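Give me structure tokens for this 93-residue protein.
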Amino acid sequence: MSRTGSGSWITRALEAFQTELRSTYSFSTREKYQPNKNRIRNRERERDRERERERERERQRERERERERQTERQKGNTDTHLALSEKTFSQRN
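Here you go.
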């Protein structure tokens, strides 16, 4: 299409338009088919954040379990203590 000196006005206009388009929007095939690196980074960051949230939830669950175990131990100690107190009290009388 780039034959100089020949062609109709429409051909020249089309060439000028294509040249303008190429200079305005320079899309290389590499840019078109290569995934957007920022998009990939954002996805990775979001995955990392989600993993961290999941780890934090797991830590929270573990803390809750530990609190429950602690409470059970304290209850058991209190019950044992009360039983011992009653035993010693009844032995005194």
